[in-house]
Amino acid sequence: xxxxxxxxxxxxxxxxxxxxxxxxxxxxxxxxxxxxxxxxxxxxxxxxxxxxxxxxxxxxxxxxxxxxxxxxxxxxxxxxxxxxxxxxxxxxxxxxxxxxxxxxxxxxxxxxxxxxxxxxxxxxxxxxxxxxxxxxxxxxxxxxxxxxxxxxxxxxxxxxxxxxxxxxxxxxxxxxxxxxxxxxxxxxxxxxxxxxxxxxxxxxxxxxxxxxxxxxxxxxx
Length: 221
Ligand code: CA
Hints:
By secondary structure, the protein is of the alpha/beta class. The chain is 44% helix and 23% strand.
């Protein structure tokens, strides 16, 4: 699965050049030539990263950053601009851009910054414990190199444990977090799912990872 980048740049030659460079670096690139279509495309495409030129027709790059952050979008944004006064840099970063690159720049520098931004993102998307890896983007779980097929609820249950390793999680916390049940008297569902999850995890690793804390809940360690 290639990572999606949206490029919003109104200079056709620069847009074409960057598109080519980013595509050959392995990214899935979409190009928009003005601010309005750029903003709409962020919402439609849900890209992993956005590169936006400051000066754009209809809606400036700065305004796109502001609107995206106002509506809660956390997509990493790299702002491109010919402006290089300190005040402009500050305004750019204040608008919610994560990074700022002054034109003219070398494409290698842009590619390096893209990699940095996406690495941070990818790290957040991976949860690990011992030899177990859970990828929140592809929704895959691996024990070493073995793919472990989980149902949606088993995945969410494991994700909750991996977010809280070495902590005792009560059955009540688990049903609230994984099933969204506020009040539940019977915790059989948790018991059943934990045993399915253990069976699948222990196929490749006989050592138990999810332990029962008698009369209370479970712990991953
Ligand atoms: Ca421009």
